[in-house]
Amino acid sequence: MSSKTVDIPKAQDGDVLYDIEEKVFPDIKAEAGQKAFIFIHTVPFEGSVALVNLKTATRLVRKGFEVHIVLYGPGVLLASRTRGFPSVGTEGFPGNLAVNEQLKTLMKEGASIYACRFAMGALYGFREDDLMDGVKAFSPLDVLDSALTAWKEGAFQLNTWTV
């Protein structure tokens, strides 16, 4: 075993370790009428992908895109109005309600959010009344038609598929 040969100062709280000023790509803003569709088929809390995509959707709204978020499969569980522990709306652990808060932010800023009725009922026994206020339930036939709508309208699309 060799001895330590390099001695550098340890990072301290507040130290900036990265170039936060340089931006490599242009800051694209939406042109009038441009849309973005975010398709999410992922299990809540099984990874960060759902929250990251909701944060990305929020950036798209703020860049001027008309944003549509399509929750299907396990993604419908993201829009649960009954999340919390030991009571609804109470964080069971830090970040427990981060998804719900991000969905509220998106809706407040103008995004449309949809949840598939088939996934809610057939897969999870999850009622429409269990959806957060403002989330629109849709027919399972709309999963494909929402994707075709995005394609037909030339919208930006972000698709997340995990199981």
TrEMBL record:
InterPro entries: DsrEFH-like, MSMEG0572, Sulphur_relay_DsrE/F-like
Superkingdom of the organism of origin: Bacteria
Pfam families referenced in this protein's UniProt entry, alphabetically: DsrE (PF02635)
Name the record gives this protein: MSMEG_0572 family protein
